[in-house]
Amino acid sequence: MSLEIIEVTKRFGQATAVDHLTLTVPEGEMFGLLGANGAGKTTTFRMILGLLLPTEGVIRWQGEPIDYSKGHLIGYLPEERGLYPKLKVQEQLLYLGRLRGMKKTDILPEIDRWLERFHIRDYANKRVEELSKGNQQKIQFIAAVLHRPKLLILDEPFSGLDPVNVELLKEAVLDLKRNGTTIVFSSHRMEHVEELCEHVCILRRGRAVVAGALRELKRSFGKQILVIQGDGPFEELARFPGVLQWKRTAEGVRLQIANEETAQAILGHIAGKVAVRLFALEEPSLNDIFIEKVGAAYE
């Protein structure tokens, strides 16, 4: 079974936050929901959780509408932390686990397991306000998964984490997926989404402008990325026929080009003129697709 969002619209007065959104999130997969600020991601999350009711449309999990009776099946890590700063870590997690219907005898081993995994066992009896932002984020994550949800919603899960702890949390998320958890994931870091998600949807003003399997979306993008590293100058390539975008990098340039024939023409043009260390065609990144589909909103 899967998470189904069917022709969902959410209006607040005259403003439309989500506009006829239809998505299917396959069970046991990780799905990236992306968009600029104000695109409708958080509103969509709150409707999935049952905190907001759609103005139109329906949201189903395992074939049934989501309501409070499904609360124990769903985990949520919000972008804004919702922890009690004066409570100690273990007290807080115990309280939140009980709210999810867990027994104390089941909660305590789970708390120990997660604190050990995230290397923060010594913080069990510290107040949340005494922890760094990164460690608070780890506690927020543990609170979201303590009850072993079947559906997990992660809104900017890597916020406040250094690179080492990002990798630690990534591996935890992947383990949950391997164990069958369906995950809906949002991040402004496109490389994280690209690494973790099989399917993505990009929202713009509440509408889906891109949706589908990430691999297929890249293949259908219709543009190539040419990376050249060398000792330039490469400025003249900005006006070269078939070059759609030109961007300077630390090692050379990164070009968006119309087709492979353009790459061959560029190679012939620069051969013998500059010392080239790397000349490579790459598939478009999710960041390229995002900018193409959402960037127009800022022009």
Describe this structure in words.
The protein is of the alpha/beta class and 299 residues long. It has helices at 41-48, 89-99, 104-117, 133-145, 163-178, 190-196, 214-219, 260-270, 286-294; strands at 3-12, 15-25, 30-35, 56-61, 64-65, 74-77, 151-155, 182-186, 199-204, 207-213, 224-230, 243-248, 252-257, 276-282. The chain has 9 helices and 14 strands. The protein has a 6-stranded mixed sheet with strand order 6-7-8-3-9-10, with helices on both faces. A 4-stranded antiparallel sheet has the order 2-1-4-5, covered by helices on one side. A hairpin with a 3-residue loop joins strand 12 and strand 13 (252-257). Helix 2 packs across helix 3 (104-117). InterPro entries: AAA+_ATPase (IPR003593), ABC_transporter-like_ATP-bd (IPR003439), ABC_transporter-like_CS (IPR017871), ABC_transporter_ATP-binding (IPR050763), DrrA1/2-like_C (IPR025302), P-loop_NTPase (IPR027417). Belongs to the ABC transporter superfamily.
Q: Characteristics of this structure?
A:
single chain; 299 residues; alpha/beta; Rossmann fold; Alpha-Beta Plaits; 2 domains; 4-stranded antiparallel β-sheet; 9 helices; 14 strands; globular; ATP binding; transport; ABC transporter (ATP-binding protein) (Na+ exclusion)
